[in-house]
Amino acid sequence: MTWGIRPIAALIARRAGRVLGGGVLATMLVSCGGQADEAPAADSAATPAAPVEAAAQAVPGVTDDQVLFGQSAAFRGPAGELGSNMEFGIRAAFSEVNRRGGVHGRQLQLLSLDDAYEPEAAIANTRQLIEETGVFALIGAVGTPTSRSAVPVALEAGVPYIAPFTGAEFLRSPDLPNVINMRASYYQETEEMVKRLTTDLGVTRISVLYQDDSYGRAGYNGVRLALENREMEMVSIGVYTRNTTAVKAALLDIRRGDPEAVIIIGAYQPVAAFIAWAKHMGLDAIFMTVSFVGSYALAEELGPAGTGVFVTQVVPFPADREIPLVKAYYRALEEFAPFHDVTFVSLEGYLAGRLAIEGLERCGPELTRECFLESLREAGRIEIEEFVLDYGPTDNQGSDSVFLTMIGPDGEYQPVSTLRDIEP
Predict the structure, then answer these.
(1) Topology annotation, domain 9-183+320-390
(2) Separation CA 16–CA 314 (nearest Å)
(3) CA atoms within 13 A on the CB side of 46
(4) How many whole angstroms separate alpha carbon 201 and alpha carbon 249?
């Protein structure tokens, strides 16, 4: 069997909404508009579950034979590949456990709604999932601005908010008892970038391009703090508007600083546009961006212009099947979607699904939201296929791991241990 690690967008259509579980996909219409297309079931032995009526059970989203999770994420626009891959990874984990009989006899289901990476849609979706559908918990949200808008809704309703695909610092606050983060923060990713640039290469002139919203500012602040810790300042700053590729003005602002390196905080389409234009205009700099960019989508967008671009990651290298977590993901795909590509984002989605499963298993048959949250927040060390997550009473972030990767001349990612080994 041949496995790929390049993106295949056709395998994950960007649907307006869907009910997912046990490897089965059933489409539906949602308030953000558009008619969802139909897709073949990945597991013909299962049947799609109907949305759970919150009033019909003591714990919303929980019946004797089912637990229903909800997801609001981007399935269209510049961040669409991120939502599709997060959803796919979660589905793979849920399908894997469902084939073994579920968790304490309950099958895990996922209802995903498209917010197109817009905060207003994320609020509407979150309310729909909680108030109308009655999900047990929310999982795999995509983005900082959308999470900033959705978390207060979930917090007020007492609904767990699990493994959002964002490294924003505000989600790490102990004042958010319903939030369980899995990944390292943007502060940690940008600290790793600055450390590598300054320590490995002696770079002193660093610029920042960021998306003009809470996500971009979170990354910008991470770079600023990393530089201040070294008594350094940015030599130039560029800003662009979310959900656009209008980056040329920002490029002109960046060029004025004559940077040796540019750290970019954005989604894959505008980031690709910026790097392509910068190289076309002769900006001779190192380009680095954070994991949220959507690594394989970025490489595909850039094509040959991607050679030498660096991306920090928060999960292990998905091409290395000697890594236990990666090996487990490939195993899960053998039954769920054997010809699907593995990406950093879908691997993170799988890990998010496994984290939710861990919480359900620890809680036992008498499942409540409070028990689910406590089972993770008070777990201390959790190992999922040797990938370590560590939680505590005031620490709702599991992993501190950051990995550096680079796009090679063949368009494929390769792990990087030190920048000293990279050919100029």
Answers:
(1) Rossmann fold (3.40.50)
(2) 28
(3) 29
(4) 29
CA distances from 413 to 184, 296, 373 (A): 20, 8, 36
Q: For 199-245, what is each residue's pLDDT tens digit?
A: 999 999 999 999 999 999 999 999 999 999 999 999 999 999 988 99
Distance CA 342, CA 217 (A): 30
> 307-351, pLDDT tens digit by residue?
999 999 999 999 999 999 999 999 999 989 988 888 999 999 999
Residue written as token pair 């699990």: 162
Instruction: Name which of 234, 237, 297, 307 is nearest 276 in CA terms.
Output: 307
Q: Tell me if residue 105 falls in helix, strand or coil.
A: coil
**CA-CA distance, 344 to 388, in Å (whole number)?**
17
CATH number at 186-313+403-421? 3.40.50.2300
**Which long-range contacts link 276-283 to residues 24+ away (Cβ below 8 Å)?**
276/302, 276/305, 277/247, 277/248, 277/251, 278/251, 278/254, 279/305, 281/251, 281/255, 283/251, 283/254, 283/255, 283/259
From the number of C-beta atoms within 10 Å of its C-beta (0-12, 13-18, 19+), residue 339 rates as exposed
CA-based torsion, 162, 362, 330, 407: positive or negative: positive
Domain range summary for the chain, segments of one domain joined by +: 9-183+320-390, 186-313+403-421
* Cβ atoms of 297 and 268 closer than 8 Å: yes
| Pairing of the two strands 161-162 and 179-180 | parallel
Q: Could you check whether 9-183+320-390 and 186-313+403-421 share the same CATH topology?
A: yes
- End-to-end alpha-carbon separation of the chain, Å? 36
* Residue 45 binned pLDDT confidence (cut-offs 50, 70, 90): very low
Q: Is 101 exposed, middle or buried (0-12, 13-18, 19+ CB in 10 A)?
A: exposed
Question: How many Å apart are CA 361 and CA 218, to the nearest integer?
Answer: 34
In 76-213, which ranges are continuous DSSP H helix? 80-99, 119-127, 144-157, 186-195, 201
